[in-house]
Amino acid sequence: MSNRYLPKLLCTASLLGICINGPLRAAEASKPDNSLRQAANTAFSAHTVKSLADAPTSDDTLVEVLAGAVPGWAFGSVTQVINDGRDAAPVSLLYLAQRTAGGWKLGLEGSDSFFSLLESVPDQVLSRAEKATFRSQRAALKQLAGVETGLGLPWPKGASWRLTGGPHGNSGSSRPYDSIDLAGGDGRVLAPRNGRIYKSCIRNGSALVTLVHDNGYSTRYYHMESLTNVADGTMLATGAYLGHIANGLPCGGSSSGAHVHYSLTRNGNAEPFNNKLVGGWQFFEGSSPYQGYALRRNVRVNVGGYLINDGPNPGPGPDPEPMVVIVRAPNGAKVNLYKSPQLSATVLGTAGHGESVKIVCHAYGDAVQGNWGSTKLWNRLTTNAWVSDGHVETGSNNPVVPACP
């Protein structure tokens, strides 16, 4: 690991690539060792290979302990270190780890291992309030993400900033396109929803900042400087100050013009901006990274245009476009159309084999033995009736339309 990526005066055990960020939450911290770094890197590598296409590459990673006040426990982050000048922003994930007889048991945010460790981690490492925030994320994660995110844009409600870069990945063209670039106003970046703050890769007044929200999403911010000095784990209210737009590169990469790189994650995975409602705007990808546009009440804003922030609860967005699908009824008979996605719901009508119907959104309900096995996936029609996904031909066993509100 290159020492130029380590925050000065705030690091210990630098030969092991472990950094303690700021004051510990208790007088004594667990001793970080090389086996913890190896466990974090192994989990991180497996995650990025599985979840990101053409992920940005780096020479190293930075494993940090954000809280380790009880021997044998650590809560922290693992972050890519990107070569300077590369068109990329670092990928970073929180982790929770417990030392066992066989070595460190480690879980990355959103994973079953993380939530399993969460139930036994001491309060001195993660407070009860922090644990409650992560548990609420898990509850929200049981539902697939819909169009609405419940997030605002990271500046004052009612103010306008410029969309300097449309949906793109961490290395520009890497998938998914989970990020947008923004600049404007007085440059003060604000929390788009209540969330707990964690800072990784602190260097030269900059850092990669994460907000863990209570609705299953986390948001991340890169390039900021003049950061808030609140402690990791602090719950910030919507509109709380995070930092100022700049060209900070604490973990490498590149930046042209002061801005903030605003990213979405869900269940520890990068979440596409495409089709998402954020701050009252629905974002869409373009034919290439950094292109695309945002749509709000029939007003379209392309890259370079200005967006008014409606805040985290803008209300329902534009109706999704219906998708025409073909009914596949068992034995060529008819299928029932229900008032809700339950077999006990009122039957509103029927659809015959081979008939075309229009679906607009999906939800999960009662299990149905369909043409391709058992499924709990249902689709809502333009008539507001529901049909089991097992009785329509969509070309996939997964949702093909957005989640219903």
From TrEMBL:
Lineage, opening ranks: Bacteria, Pseudomonadati, Pseudomonadota, Betaproteobacteria, Neisseriales
GO biological process terms held by the UniProt record: proteolysis
Endpoints of the signal sequence: 1-26
Domain M23ase beta-sheet core: 178-270
GO molecular function: metal ion binding; metalloendopeptidase activity
Keywords, alphabetical: Metal-binding, Signal, Zinc
Record text on cofactor binding: Binds 1 zinc ion per subunit.
Residues reported to bind Zn(2+): 168, 181, 261
Active site: 223, 259
PANTHER family xrefs: MUREIN HYDROLASE ACTIVATOR ENVC, PEPTIDASE-RELATED
Name of the protein in its database record: M23 family metallopeptidase
UniProt cross-references to Gene3D superfamilies, sorted A to Z: Glucose Permease (Domain IIA)
Pfam families: Peptidase_M23
InterPro entries assigned to the protein according to its UniProt record, in alphabetical order: Cell_wall_metabolism_enzyme, Dup_hybrid_motif, M23ase_b-sheet_dom, Pept_M23A_Blytic
Cofactor: Zn(2+)
